[in-house]
Input
Amino acid sequence: MTSNSSPLTRRQFLRVLSGSLCAGALGSVGLIRERLRSSFSAVRQSRPLLGTVVTITVHHPDLSQAESAIGSAFAAIEHVDRVMSLHRRDSDLNGINQAAGRAAVPVDPMLLDILGVARTVHGWSGGAYDVTCLPIMQLYGFYTQQQSGRVASRHYPSDAAVQRALDAVGLQHLNIDGSRREVGLAREGAGIDLGSIGKGYAVDRAVTALRAAGVEHGLVDAGGNVYALGVPQDAASEAADGWRVAIRNPFGTEAASCFERLSLRDAGVATSGNYEQSVVLDGRRIGHLFDATRAAPVDAYLSTTVVAATATMADALSTTTYLLGEAPSQRVKPPAQAIYFHRYAT
Output
């Protein structure tokens, strides 16, 4: 693992275009960020984590304190990855999935926390958003090759196979014992995938670490799942109300490269879309976002972006709103500060 740390000038313009593993998020759309100040220590570090590049920017009067705070924030993200990654055999999450149908397993308290949020969002979505969707993902060829070494079928699944996957999906199979700090799946073949919420949660843990270290102004970007802390400390900060973030259109022109330009302060933002992660089955392109009530792929929009009070909620709600569409998404509007739908060009 490498780390790059450098002071930033106020003229430096940072552009990020990166991808994420599950459930889209802003990384696949990209960010444009600016505003850095020479009179403040402005430090940026990037590391490969969570299957993407995580970049943390901090503005602080003390350079050494800024660098120490960033180190603590990265340590917090690494801990989330050790607990929740599907790509680590020794993660707590994989321990739950491997014991499905047999036993509950002890887990880090963070898993209890994130599953509680996921359960709340599941209720808002009428069941369309469901972190027990792993059997559906595997049925359509996602994760299967990486996890088992087998080449996923290139054919669309049969109705019987879809029904078997549906039978293994649902929060009724999820057992959470907070007092014992144990989580189990009651049905063999069930599985949890936190790709639609995990990066946002990792961002929030990093922000918590920054605040604990005395940082009041910074930006955490985990492959596009972003939290803006305070305001940028540049020469124009007196007139600024937040960090400037642009939602990039991956298919836009040079003249129209962004969907929206936002100003964020103490808020998270995430975008979900199907245009990066997909498989081709019987000649049909299948994206990685599925309605868990039907085990059916959803592809009505290019992407959706959500601004919320936390990066965790922004992450989960960006997937939820993508699955529900514009009218039903009014149900989740209260916890979302803003929702943007991006349509395919016609």
